[in-house]
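Researcher: Hi, I'm a grad student and pretty new to this. My advisor asked me to get structures for two proteins we've been looking at. I'm not sure of the right format, so I'll just paste the first sequence and hope you can take it from there.
Model: That works fine. Here's the first sequence with its structure tokens right after it:
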Amino acid sequence: MVADEAPADEVRGVVQGAAPVPLSVLDLVTVGAGRTATDALRTSVDLVRLAEARGFHRYWVAEHHSMPGVASSSPAVILAHLAAHSERIRLGSGGVMLPNHAPLVIAEQFGTLEAMAPGRIDLGLGRAPGTDGATAAALRRTDRLNEGADDFPEQLAELIRFLDDDFPDGHPYGRIHAVPGPVQGTSPGGVQSPHRPPVWLLGSSGFSARLAGLLGLPFAFAHHFSAQNTVPALDLYRESFKPSRVLDAPYALIGVSVLATDEESEARRQVLATGLNMVRLRTGRPGLFPTPEEAEAHEFSPMEREFVSSWNANIVHGSVDEVRSGLDELQKRTGADELMLTSHAHRGELRLRSYELIADAYGLPTI
């Protein structure tokens, strides 16, 4: 007996309204100055409800560590919470940084999530640490960080074996099973669904793009912090692509920083605060997401101003008309199959309003 059969295609999204491609959400659970992680997580609940109600296709949470302004260190925990506050929208990791974890642990976590929200869990995987080197060493209990990244294809293969419960005979892990998982369906009286979360590869360079193509997996590119590499990486993915049982043709989404506001000036102020936040992060001084007033009072050095200008040039922001035009142009230029939008602002209500304005601009339905 098979329970909860999965939909035929869980990768490709459905276009809603007048959007050029499916639209999705990436959440870093931003914590603003003067606010708490509890506040940020409450915003995430409000946001997943909004995204589901307005027809956004999926909602992913990113793994980051040792950053006071980012409360998404435990994607699986947050996704379980969001699953309890939603019914239809796909939920997933964007992503889990696989070298930080044992593959069996990830298989167990996402098997559990799949049991909680059958047929709507994605497992997005990256090979970067999602933090600085010292924190990565603490996570992995080793200072040989390159070793983890170099072993990523092997870690990925092991994880997929655990997810599918199909280690070959004689393999050292052949008698080990990720639970919840397929083994429950093959046990006496088992009714476990054979379905498991689809795997995505994430990247900001060519390595994961090529690997995703060779394996025939969907690919997510971090345009929001590696914009100069977007088109080359997507080209490499498409050129490397080999059809698989997962996909018969390439499917790529890109993460896009975006902020639409009712007043254009407010978008500029919030984006300046984003710039200050990134300056602090890149200089080893990460903190809570600053207020616009704090950013306006900050005396940027010439080098900092150059960095902020370059960084903010890749944030699609301003009035809703500006944002829609910018997203349309970006999708056309990259050929992305899906746009995953991430909005950063000091106040959670501004992030919520940004997604609401974008949904209205494209005529996304209220579902």
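Researcher: Oh nice, that was easy. Here's the second one.
Model: And its structure:
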Amino acid sequence: MGMPWHQSLRIARYLMVQKLRRRSKFPLIVELEPLFACNLSCPGCGKIQHPASVLKQRMPVEQAVAAIEECGAPMVSIAGGEPLMHPDIDTMVNEFVRRKKYVFLCTNAALLRRKIDKLDLKPSRYFAFAIHVDGLRERHDAAVDKEGVFDEVIEAIAELKKRGFRVTTNTTVFNTDTPQTLTEVLDFLNDEIEVDQMMVSPAYAYEKAPDQEHFLGVQETRELFRKAFSGGNRKRWRLNHSPLFLDFLEGKVDFECTAWGVPSYSLFGWQKPCYLMSDGYARTYAELVETTDWDAYGRGRDPRCANCMAHCGYEPTAVLATLGSLKESLRAARGL
């Protein structure tokens, strides 16, 4: 099961317009980071390793809106850091929703219940919370390096669902995971908590992450997902991915990275070449596309890309391959 029909049709129309305009590179969704500060210190993330002067900065709403308007992306994933620490995060979300952008507010949810009544946010077909859940209680609390966060996350999800919000989750997979632990958390989210949709992604070895020992290799990733998806799980789970990307995770197909499809815009500008690596910044998306040597990146080209199978690089490739094939488009429509 992929994205909702109205969203799928909107993205298909957007891709058709790009083809008619003969644009070879364009964004599907922007990873927007309006701050780097966070209330947690996850060992697998390097975002809070920035200097204190950077962690204090907050991107103005006008700057964020201008960046999304300039690139024209139909979807925005607001991350960080922890976006709920931004004083104008609700205004930012509402500005994007008003422009009919599909917005995913990525949060660890530890602050959510305390802040929800102070936020001017309403349920909308264009808006969803994307909550990080990296395992059941013990595994998740270890991933965020703080006890009690898992229970708070589950309470927050229940509160959001009661208020009518669309709730999705994002689960990052490390080499400490097994097919069983991944199956357990996705079963829990899908069947017991009943979130609307779920995303999964192999962890990427952030250069500044304190923990550098628990990132998956390509073969490990393929074996883990192949086993976790067996027995009908893949079809049963409400996964917010294209079938071809799930094939990619299992090793049934291989793709080139399409980093320009999910660009990252932060306090520093447009990040080269992607959300996961930092080889400089551009002022505009057009400059990012024109000045980045895209052929220098990818497996077999840059050693930093050797084990990357993250959705921010390969999901757009899978989406483009799907739209370029009638067979795959019908398959995606059936959720197979």
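Researcher: Is there anything I should tell my advisor about the second?
Model: You could mention this: The chain has one domain: 5-335.
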